[in-house]
Amino acid sequence: xxxxxxxxxxxxxxxxxxxxxxxxxxxxxxxxxxxxxxxxxxxxxxxxxxxxxxxxxxxxxxxxxxxxxxxxxxxxxxxxxxxxxxxxxxxxxxxxxxxxxxxxxxxxxxxxxxxxxxxxxxxxxxxxxxxxxxxxxxxxxxxxxxxxxxxxxxxxxxxxxxxxxxxxxxxxxxxxxxxxxxxxxxxxxxxxxxxxxxxxxxxxxxxxxxxxxxxxxxxxxxxxxxxxxxxxxxxxxxxxxxxxxxxxxxxxxxxxxxxx
Length: 260
Known about the structure:
Layout (H helix, E strand, L loop, with lengths): L1 E5 L3 H13 L3 E5 L2 H10 L4 E5 L7 H10 L6 E5 L4 H9 L4 E4 L4 H15 L6 E4 L2 E4 L4 E4 L2 E3 L3 H12 L5 E2 H9 L9 H15 L6 E4 L3 E4 L22 H6 L2 H9 L1
Parallel strand pairs: 1-2, 1-3, 3-4, 4-5
Antiparallel strand pairs: 6-7, 7-8, 8-9, 10-12, 11-12
């Protein structure tokens, strides 16, 4: 999941970018309000963290502009002002969270993780698919309590598949999820990541959770989700009339009876 951080102060930006990286997030830095708006307009970010005081515009203006442009990326506002009025104004303009300085990096990371979970439809950090357990907070994966070592990109792909299980995901979607539209490699890299991910899952007995949707991409199925099947009702009369009946039917009716 790629995150955009808007901050012009070197010390603050370095500390928060380091904390995001340790938590398993890829992050880009914007040093002005205009740069923030342009990046969020053109690239796919899971979340943006915006400081209230950027050199060319304040956080309120950035929020207002983004929401006017119908950009729905979740936004956390960082501010040195800790008053109800400041928070209310930020939430009214479209902020998803507001964190007053000073704060611990661990708290910011926890808020980031909570918002990302909710935006993907998960209130709890643990996602379960069959015997596979994926922890969205600490980026760990187990199958029947056996841990699997995944590199960052492999986890990000599995994360997307789990969060959208049962729905085919295109290779372009995976690229956006991994790189946010920036510095994207050749699309064939997705096939490489999927191949390695499948081998690691199968090695611990997870089975064939990931299927190829030819011409589209990949999909993850929940093995515990049983498809609903209905037994068709028995016909009240035979589908094919007897020889004796055939001799009494006009030709059009006979064709209809056999075709049914």
